[in-house]
Design the sequence.
C-alpha cells in the first residue's frame, strides 16, 4: 500500500527498528496499549501521522468501571490530572427530577486526554510521527515501511486506527455497516460556569419520542459546563441545521424543566455535530495482526460504551494475550483468534452493540411493542416519582397545635 509523504520528524530513525509489538494509531486505544505494555517491559513502537491528536468531539465522559481499568493497567496517575470528577448527577425524566445518582463520573475533552497520555509515554516507547507506506503480515514477523524509508519489524502488529481505513484495507479487513447514520451527537459549552450551576451535573431525558432525542447530559470539564446531546436526527435534517443556528431556543422548548439549572441554556461555543454508524469487521482473523477499539467495531455514543470496549481490549491484550503470545514462537492466526473468542471481549462488544440498538428503539421506535414498552417504563417511573412525593409529604413534621 502507499500513502502521501509525511512531513514530520519520525521518532524511529531511518533504519530497522525491531520490537515485540508495533501499534499503528495513537488514539486512546493505541496510546493506552503502548503505555501499559511499556510498563511491563515490552519493546513497543507506536506510529501515528500526527504528533498532536486534533481537537475533535468524541467521548467526553467515563464512569468508574472504565477508570478502574485505567488504574488496573497502571495508567491512573497519567489520566487523573486530565479528567474532572463528579459524583452527584441529577436525573430528570418525564419533566421532573427523577433521581440523584451518587456515582463517580469523569469529564474530559478527547484531544487533551489522548495528548496527555501521549505525553506520559516513556522514552523507550515514544510516538513515531510518520505514515505507513507498506505493511506486510505473516505467522512470524510483521513489517511496516514508513514513507521516510524507516522500517519497523515486530512479532505482533496491532491496528488501532479508529475510523481510518487505509491500514485495515491494506491488510484485507472490511468494515460492515450494521446501521448507517445510526445516531447524532451534539456537543457544546454552556455559558454558565460550574460554580454558578446549582447542580454539579444534570442528565435530562427527552419526553416526546417525536423529538428524536434520547437525552442531554450537562457536566463540568475544568471550568466549563459542557453539554452532550444524543439523538437520532441526521446531519442533513432541518432540525440539525436549526439546532446549530439556535440551540438555546430549541433547548428551552424541549427541556424547560432544567433551564434554570443550566443558565437558561445560553450557549458559549459552536455546536459540534457527529453522526455515527454502527460497524463491525470481517477478515480480521489473520496471522500476526490484531485489531482493537473503533478500528474493530464502532458502537453508538448514546449508551456511552465505546471507551469501555477500547479499555477492555487493551486490558485483555496486556493482562493475558500479548504475554502469552510472546511466550511461544510464532504469531499465527490460531493464537490471535483466542483474543476475538475471549468471553470477556465478546460479552463487552456484544453488550455495547445491543445497548446501541436498544437505546434507539426505546427512544423513537413507533411499532406497538416499543410503544407499550415506553408506556410500561414511564408508568413505573411515574409511580416512583409519586411514591417519593407521598413519602416526603408523610415525613413532614405535623403542624403545631398552636
Ligand atoms: C461524538 C462521539 C461521542 C462519544 N461519546 C462517548 C462517550 O460518552 N463514552 C464512551 O465510552 N465512548 C464515546 N464515544 C466513543 C469513543 O470516543 C471511541 O470508542 C474511542 O475514542 C475510540 O478510540 P480509538 O483509539 O479506537 O480510536 P481513535 O481515538 O479514533 O484513534 C485512532 C488513531 O489512529 C490514527 N490513524 C488513523 N489512520 C492511521 C494510519 N493509516 N496510520 C497511523 N495512524 C492512523 C488516528 O490519527 C488516531 O490517532 C464517542 C464517540 C463519538 C464519535
Sequence:
Amino acid at each position: 500500500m502507499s500513502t502521501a509523504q509525511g512531513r514530520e520528524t519520525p521518532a524511529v530513525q531511518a533504519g530497522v527498528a525491531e520490537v515485540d509489538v508495533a501499534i499503528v494509531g495513537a488514539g486512546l486505544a493505541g496510546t493506552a496499549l503502548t503505555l501499559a505494555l511499556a510498563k511491563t517491559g515490552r519493546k513497543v513502537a507506536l506510529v501515528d501521522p500526527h504528533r498532536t491528536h486534533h481537537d475533535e468531539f468524541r467521548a467526553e465522559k467515563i464512569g468508574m468501571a472504565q477508570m478502574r481499568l485505567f488504574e488496573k493497567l497502571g495508567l491512573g496517575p497519567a489520566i487523573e490530572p486530565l479528567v474532572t470528577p463528579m459524583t452527584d448527577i441529577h436525573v430528570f425524566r418525564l419533566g421532573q427530577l427523577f433521581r440523584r445518582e451518587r456515582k463517580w463520573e469523569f469529564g474530559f475533552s478527547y484531544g487533551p486526554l489522548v495528548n496527555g497520555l501521549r505525553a506520559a509515554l516513556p522514552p523507550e516507547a515514544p510516538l513515531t510521527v510518520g505514515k505507513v507506506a507498506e505493511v506486510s503480515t505473516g505467522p512470524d514477523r510483521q513489517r511496516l515501511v514508513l514513507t521516510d524509508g524507516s522500517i519497523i519489524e515486530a512479532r505482533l502488529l496491532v491496528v488501532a486506527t479508529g475510523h481510518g481505513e487505509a491500514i485495515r484495507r491494506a491488510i484485507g479487513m472490511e468494515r460492515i455497516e450494521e446501521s448507517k447514520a445510526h445516531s447524532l451527537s451534539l456537543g457544546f459549552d454552556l455559558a454558565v460556569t460550574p460554580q454558578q450551576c446549582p447542580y454539579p451535573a444534570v442528565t435530562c431525558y427527552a419526553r416526546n419520542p417525536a423529538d428524536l432525542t434520547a437525552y442531554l447530559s450537562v457536566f463540568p470539564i475544568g471550568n466549563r459546563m459542557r453539554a452532550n446531546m444524543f439523538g437520532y436526527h441526521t446531519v442533513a435534517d432541518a432540525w440539525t441545521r436549526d439546532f446549530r443556528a439556535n440551540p438555546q431556543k430549541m433547548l428551552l422548548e424541549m427541556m424547560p424543566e432544567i433551564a434554570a439549572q443550566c443558565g437558561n441554556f445560553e450557549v458559549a461555543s459552536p455546536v459540534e455535530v457527529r453522526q455515527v454508524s454502527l460497524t463491525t469487521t470481517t477478515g480480521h482473523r489473520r496471522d500476526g495482526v490484531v485489531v482493537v477499539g473503533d478500528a474493530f467495531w464502532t458502537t453508538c455514543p448514546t449508551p456511552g460504551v465505546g471507551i469501555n470496549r477500547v479499555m477492555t481490549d487493551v486490558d485483555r491484550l496486556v493482562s493475558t494475550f500479548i504475554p502469552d503470545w510472546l511466550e511461544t514462537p510464532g504469531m499465527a492466526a490460531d493464537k490471535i483468534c483466542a483474543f476475538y473468542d475471549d468471553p470477556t471481549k465478546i460479552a463487552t462488544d456484544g453488550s455495547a452493540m445491543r445497548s446501541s440498538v436498544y437505546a434507539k428503539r426505546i427512544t423513537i421506535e413507533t411499532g406497538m411493542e416499543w410503544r407499550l414498552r415506553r408506556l410500561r417504563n414511564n408508568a413505573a417511573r411515574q409511580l416512583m416519582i409519586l411514591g417519593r412525593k407521598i413519602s416526603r409529604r408523610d415525613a413532614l413534621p405535623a403542624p403545631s397545635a398552636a
